[in-house]
């Protein structure tokens, strides 16, 4: 083979290899591009973000709810778990609008329309003073045992404390102190079965209960519990294992009286027997 032929074939092989290398490089570049395109496609599928992975994760969060903010805001804003349903009652449109505006801004609150107010966990009554119209509303709300009532009042008269107790109000907040955080605390506390009172009203309530015990109940041998002192003593003796005759001897009553007292307790509290009565009294801290 001549030198010219060798150069010619070498040149031909070189021309053939160079396109092959270029094609492989192109295919490699194309493969990389496809991978990037797939990643970008994922971001586009999950949300409007087309940039980095962080943006794509934010898009996935937005997909979980109707909110257009971050994933956390969307989850809280649209989920029903943990939200407290609230119905608002006010004596005028201005008070009602202001209260609704305060509550609507918080994702943990779900405001209930008036037509569905009976299914609310919490009813908030917003008034200037506790007058006859307010008392009628509170009594009406009291009949719905599935709803707890809170009172947001401008001026709380001392005589309104007894009315509040009779109407089953679970929490009181003065309007001058009713900022958003205190309102949310009030609503959550009621939903959890708790009560909320300003410090001065709590002191008045305790004084009122103490006065009631001294002036009304003690002279009649009664207590604020569901048992009289005599009933509690007899059930305590039952819990210690004493029989009817022994209880009669220790309390200086006849056996017939002991039986009647224990029967009265069982009937009044819908208890099946003496053991059930003992369990009830212990669970409620009566003995």
Q: What this model shows, in words?
A:
This protein has 12 helices and 5 strands. Helix 9 (229-239) crosses helix 11 (255-268) and helix 9 (229-239) packs across helix 12 (274-283). A 5-stranded parallel sheet has the order 2-1-3-4-5, sandwiched between helices. It has helices at residues 3-46, 53-63, 71-78, 93-104, 132-142, 160-166, 180-191, 199-217, 229-239, 244-251, 255-268, 274-283; strands at 84-90, 109-111, 122-127, 148-153, 169-174. By secondary structure, the protein is of the alpha/beta class.
List keywords for this structure.
287 residues; alpha/beta; 5 strands; 10% strand; elongated
Please summarize what this structure is.
The protein is α/β, with parallel strands linked by helices and 287 residues long. It has helices at residues 3-46, 53-63, 71-78, 93-104, 132-142, 160-166, 180-191, 199-217, 229-239, 244-251, 255-268, 274-283, and strands at residues 84-90, 109-111, 122-127, 148-153, 169-174.
How far is the first residue's CA from the last residue's CA? 120 Å
Gyration radius, in Å: 38 Å
Average pLDDT figure: 74
N-to-C order of helices and strands? HHHEHEEHEHEHHHHHH
Shape: elongated
Order of adjacent strands in the largest pleated sheet: 2-1-3-4-5
State the total count of DSSP E strands.
5
Helical segment count: 12
Report low-confidence residues grouped into runs of 5 or more.
6-19, 24-80
Main sheet, how many strands, which sense, barrel? Answer: 5 strands, parallel
Helix fraction, binned, reads 55-70%
Strand composition percent: 5-15%
Pairing-aware structural class of the strands and helices? Answer: alpha/beta
